[in-house]
Amino acid sequence: MKTHRWNSSAAWLLALSAVCTLGCYDSDETRARERQPKTSEVKRDVEQTWDDLKAYTAERRAEFEHSVSAHLSRMESELDQLGNEVADMKRDQIEPEIDGLRARLREMRTDLDELRVSAAENWEDARDKMVDAGRDLGDSLDELRVKLRT
Fold this sequence. Notes:
Elements: H1 2-24, H2 28-35, H3 39-54, H4 61-85, H5 88-116, H6 120-149
């Protein structure tokens, strides 16, 4: 009878140990994910940046152009990275979306070139158009990022 009780206790301890080990195990991937900023935080920061750009005046045109160009370069890099991460089975679905976003980025670069030579009285409208397009493109990039993670 004592042996049976000892076997039962050992089984409980073994089971409890396994549960604690599995439940308490924190993978490298989980820790890395926790260190990354939350998507909502990044999105809020990016939207704030685009909103800040909307406050630029024609006198700060060069600074605005530089900031927008830097944003577009970051978006292009992110698209390249997302394109490299696409699993083969999702590639047929995602590749057209990535190509569409790349086309929109090229359009924004063209618009930025036109903004550089625009007259001061048209500059604010062109700036607002650029900021709105950048925000929309950022939202589309966020949606693609979510799609890739599901």
